[in-house]
Amino acid sequence: MISKTNFPKNFLWGGATAANQIEGGYDLDGRGMSIADTLPGGKNRFKIVESDDFDWSIDSRKYRYPNHLGIDFYHHYQSDIKLFSEMGFKTYRFSIAWSRIFPRGDEEYPNKAGLRFYSEVIDECLKYGIEPVITLSHYELPLFLAKEYGGWKNRKLIDFFEKYVQVIIKQFGKKVKYFLTFNEINSAGQHPVMGQGMIPKTGSLNKQNVFQAWHNQFVASSRAVKIAHDFNRNIQVGCMLLYATSYAYNSDPRNQLANLQNEQEFNYFCGDVQIRGEYPAYTNRLFKKYGVKNLEITDQDLSELKKYPVDFISISYYMSTAIEVTQNSHDTAAGNLIGGVRNPYLKSSEWDWQIDPTGLRIALDKLYDRYQKPIFVVENGLGAKDKLTKDNKVYDEYRIDYLRSHIQAISEAIADGVPVMGYTPWGCIDLVSASTGEMSKRYGFIYVDLNDDGTGSLQRFKKESFMWYQRVIKTNGADLSTDGLNY
Q1: CA end-to-end span of the chain
Q2: Domains annotated on the chain, with CATH
Q3: Would you name the residues annotated as active-site residues?
Q4: Chain-wide mean pLDDT for the chain?
């Protein structure tokens, strides 16, 4: 049923992926190793890489490394982007693998084969009228920078990132309007291995290093904004936050205060610096809480942060959490790199992530109230175990229900007055899960015939949600029903 839409005519409907989870070709055409190449597959991947004895080494006799193949987008990008076009994508968010451009990360000159590949991907998007949105760093720091420099706690990475961004903007800045700096930058508070390239052996357990790494990334982000604006003032650069709406478990003032402080620390700290251009008033409380002292912060750094804040906000949103600090007897729930107390009013996914579309509306309203900048929902979706039928179909009504409710929440936020730029559901084509390294945790509108053990044909098949999302885009969000789907 078609109804009036709240979505603006220029709303950017599309999908999102990351290089390390889809590309494959990890050792082709001069690409260097990235930290993602060392992540083993399976639910214990974080336990393995965050153990005291992990040293970034690869043990193929003991583990599988699914990121090495991804879904082989490196050789399928043309047909995959054609499928995106068939769905009606207005935009496609993807990341550039830094180590495909600078194999070690600290070279003098870029890898021409890597630049050529992304030039071809961008041109393929533009051929179909699909606006590229490029994430500059999405959990794929060059491995050499993690091993030899200790990751983002080392200030030298600011200069290496600056050179990388200069090359990317010079090469693609005339064709690409939207860039994101660091994917889910705030996630390092829980898992520094992904966003900051640090493990216990290189200091990830010391919050002094985490906050120093964040500061270095904040400065690097500001320099990316400057580089982009100096090249073309029409380029828009955004930050990217993992946003998880949180609620106090009850009206106990202790839980209310704990929830406020959790929101400041997790949802807002990194955004406050990148969007407002300065450290927030509660910084000293945070530093005291974690024993952080005497970070290396220069006057020039603070000047750059203030002068070059990001142009817009982008977020991932999958679930919400609840905060309870007065007792320890509550059940817990999982989540996107974080968990929390189980909310009795919410249902959960197969991976125990609590489903809360109203939380997305709350997130958008709060973010705009706080920052007054446009917001782009660049990740949202449902990981589930899809079943491929004998006639190569996937009936994923559960995914449609999830996405419909979250699109409705975005529509209501727009009606509230929030300027939402676009919506790119995560894993628009099935890919390797970042949290578990599994293929069986599927998000896409397109099924990829690939199993957790690496077997499969890599064939692509449209799911029922493919047809549904195609109609959503065609009607600009006016028709969210499944009535009469041709599947």
Answers
A1: 17
A2: 12-474 (3.20.20.80)
A3: 379
A4: 95
